[in-house]
Amino acid sequence: MNDIQIIISGAAGDGTKATGYLIGKILNRCGYRIFIHEDYSSLIRGGHNFSVIRATRNNERCIREKTDFLLSLNEDSIEYHLGGLEEGTLIYNSDQIKDREGIGIPAETIAQEEGAIIMKSNALLGALCKVLGVDWDVIGDAFEGFPHSEKNLKVVRRTYDSQEKKHQIEKEKVASPMITGNEAVALGALEAGMQSYFAYPMTPSTSILHFLARLKEEYKIDVFQPENEIGVVNAALGCAFTGKRTMIGTSGGGFALMAEGISLAAMSETPLVVVDSQRAGPSSGVPTYNGQADLNFALSPGPGDFLSLLVAPGDAEEAFSFSNLAMNIAWKYQIPAVVLIDKDISESTFSFDENVIEGAEKWDEKKERNSKNYQRYQITEDGVSPLAYPGKKAVVKSGSYETDEYGVSTEDSEMIIKMQEKRMKKEDYIKEELSKKEAIKIYGEGDKILFCWGSTKGAAIAAGREAGYKVVQILVFKPFPVEKIREVVEGCKEVVVVESNSSGQAAEILKKYILVGRKILKYDGRPFSKEELIKKLKE
Amino acid sequence: MPQISLNTKNTWCPGCGNFAIEAASKKVIKKIGVENTAITAGIGCHGKIIDYLNVSSFYGLHGRPVITATGIKIGNPELKVIAFTGDGDSLNEGISHLIHAAKRNSDITVVLHQNRNFALTVKQFTASSPKGFISNSSPSGNIEEPLNPLSLVYSAGATFIARGFSGNVDHLEKIILQGVQHKGFSFIEVLQPCVAWFDTYDDYRKNTYIFENTPKRPLEKINEWDYESDGKIPLGVFHKEEKESFEESLKKGKKKLNTKKFLSRKV
Fold first, then answer.
1. Residues A392-442: pLDDT tens digits?
2. Residue B163 banded pLDDT, cuts 50, 70, 90
3. Strands of A440-443's sheet, edge to edge?
4. Is A403 exposed, middle or buried (0-12, 13-18, 19+ CB in 10 A)?
5. Three-class SS state of B220
6. Nearest to B162, CA basis, from B170, B171, B103
7. Is residue A191 helix, strand or coil?
8. Are residues A210 and A298 in the same domain?
9. Is a pLDDT exceeding 70 seen at residue A380?
10. What is the extent of the structural domain holding A107?
11. Among partner residues A198, A220, A392, which is closest to B253 by beta-carbon distance?
12. Statement to judge: residues A190 and A98 lie in one domain
């Protein structure tokens, strides 16, 4: 078996997510590359939640329409997913679901007998693992560190022993770590020296806050949850003003509240990294579902004419590398940097390629200026003024008004022009620096091109491979890598753009520079499946 | 030590109550040391103080100097951080930040330039304008009642609350210094007459009085004046309480985790 898709489905509070993760962990330890997609509603208990676990040998990071194993905890989930099962196997909770074809497990009875009904999801896991032929040792190890692992393992053992082996999956010596996109974003920033993370909760960015709040002491960073997103961005600027590398995180609505502060970051030349994890919008939209419709807004994330960086990683490794890059560029050039991700990156779990850590950098600040003659906005050749921080000899005057070089407000027409030009001339240097980075990535070959960005990357690569498309992923949107894009489309027969919004925002940007044929758009909050995209490409 | 005054053109109206706040603040900052100080301000006449003081400063957005000050304090807890703000700034636009800074006992000092109107935008009513106040946005008189910021920050949990008056620089200096030296959130309201749009000098001169001892029942003292009637207006320290500050409670860890170590937990 080179490619397995498993769905575990139940109500919120049934523990399906934790079990889904454990299934991923077990298969990860059997040498598969894991991708887990989470689908859940904006509620605490009830509803219908599921995790799609995709375990492949070739690291496909998307969902399929066809499912091999469906683990169902209630009737609702059967209704919803049975269509995709075809020849696959149903493993169901027979305490809730009437007899049907498949493997019925009295999951609640077993869980109750061993101590707690919450373990019912893991009862289905035991049966699955036996059918797949997973060694018991692998399961035991995977539960290490899981809450109440002993009790859970008793439940798993009972159902494991109740089944017959139908496949044989070997364990592997080396397994990669499994992390979410949100964890990766945080790790990349930490590698670039992040010392503070400020955020107000907003799905799907919230788990960055959870992750860093939990580990703030071990990482020695300050984690602060202010009163609202306006507070977040303005506190972050205060903190960065003292020299602390600071990141903030939010989703579309909160990002909008931060807009004035992002403009202030640019005006005051205070380095700032903002993570916007998109969800289905506009407005509150569909909070726990995916969207890629903040692109236009993120390109110009505040009032005024200013420079900012916009990067759009597409998976966990890129989330790591590009939040790392964003922090370094933000500090080196004293600009706001936006890391645009989406729910299917933030909350999906990926087998993580550790090699990317080697590429992480930490911008090394030249010695802090500390003289009495310090001028915060000294005009320099590249527009970057030396940094200094309050608390020492230098008086550091920074802020939202246009100022002279010292930092005193000005209305002088000549000075206004000089300062605007000073800030904007950094762009050439940033472009030069980014020309050495992977602003676009190319997968496969051919004279038909499929453009993608963000989480659609997973389905695009998988579908492109089968439908005969060369896939081009855009990772940097500002400054836009025009030359690289023109070069890649040279001589091609067709250009298709796939993205999760209704107007084709990336396609419209591309149209300014190249001929774009078709747009394949999806805006129901759900990710593209591999089959769905292949079909659309072949239309 | 650098000169505390900047050689800039002062654009406050002659006789503006802000001059007294500037004078008192300079004396306070000299005492605590320019190098140990960072100041913030929002947008409004009050904010111009930034351009007159040669002190490290972050001239923030309208309504946001208080939360920016907390950010600075988190970034460098060694600094004394003073947020200059106006009534339009922190009682209208950014009132949430004021309440939360008091609630979390952030170790910053807020100096509220209380001129009771939006002055720089040429006279509109603010949250502390009296009922009936005639302004460009309330030509037939303000229909809202004024807010008492002292009672607001008291109920939010402020650990130092004082009121001064631009007509008495020495007293102002004394209470601002006490506020800056206080560990935790300190709030100083300065009655600052706006000579252009709301000249309250005569009323304040007539009605203000200084009390010496911090009262046992702060709210009674705070509510003595309702920002409406021409009753007596107490000046002094209404409330002072020792409590762990927010920034002290932010537990500082010891770095022992890196990416590789973290990832080894996630296999």
1. 999 999 999 999 999 999 999 999 999 999 999 999 999 999 999 999 999
2. very high
3. A440-443, A470-474, A448-452, A494-499, A518-521
4. buried
5. helix
6. B171
7. helix
8. yes
9. yes
10. 3-161
11. A220
12. no
Total number of domains in chain A: 4
HEC string for B122-187: CCECCCCCCCCCCECCECCCCCCCCCCHHHHHHHHCCCEEEEEECCCHHHHHHHHHHHHHCCCCEE
Residue A467 near chain B (CB below 8 Å): no
CATH of the domain at A128: 3.40.920.10
Query: A141 and A200 in one domain?
Result: no
**Among all residues of chain B, which has the CA nearest to that of A371?**
B2
- Chain B contact for A493, CB < 8 A? no
Does A385 fall in a domain?
yes
The pair of three-digit structure tokens given for residue A68, joined into one six-digit string: 């091999």
Looking at the fold, whether A50 and A116 belong to one and the same domain comes out as yes
User: What is d(CA A248, CA A46) in angstroms, rounded to the nearest whole number?
Assistant: 32
Condensed to tens digits (0 to 9), the pLDDT of residues A120-136 reads 999 999 999 999 999 99
Is there a contact between B57 and A360 if contact means CB atoms under 8 Å apart? no
Instruction: Report the alpha-carbon distance of residue B43 to residue A112 in Å, rounded.
Output: 62
Amino acid symbol at A210 = H
Overall average pLDDT of the A318-331 stretch: 98
Q: What is the pLDDT of residues B187-207, one digit of tens each?
A: 999 999 999 999 999 999 999
In a domain, A170, yes or no: no
Q: Are residues A187 and A330 in the same domain?
A: yes
pLDDT (0 to 100) of residue B253: 78
Q: Is residue A405 part of a domain?
A: yes
When pLDDT is cut at 50, 70 and 90, the band that residue A46 belongs to is: confident
A259 shares a domain with A200: yes
Q: Which fold has domain B18-264?
A: Rossmann fold (3.40.50)
Q: What is the ipTM of this complex?
A: 0.97
Which position has the token pair 């310090």?
A374
Asked if B71 lies within 8 A of A234 by C-beta distance, the reply is yes
CATH number of the domain that A286 lies in?
A: 3.40.50.970
Asked if residue A390 and residue A276 are part of one domain, the reply reads: no
User: Of the residues A359, A380, A399, which one is the last residue of a structural domain?
Assistant: A359
Which residues on neighbouring strands pair with residue A202, listed in sequence order? Answer: none
Residue B1, pLDDT > 60, answer: no
Q: Which residues of B touch A177 (CB under 8 A)?
A: 263-267
Residue A238 at interface with chain B, using a CB cutoff of 8 Å: yes
A370 → chain B, closest CA residue: B35
Contact A132, A30 (CB under 8 A): no
Q: Are residues A406 and A418 in the same domain?
A: yes
Whether A88 and A66 have beta carbons less than 8 Å apart is answered as yes
Assigned domain for A197 exists: yes
Residues 178-207, chain B, touching A (beta carbon < 8 A)? none
List the beta bridge partners of residue B124.
Answer: B118
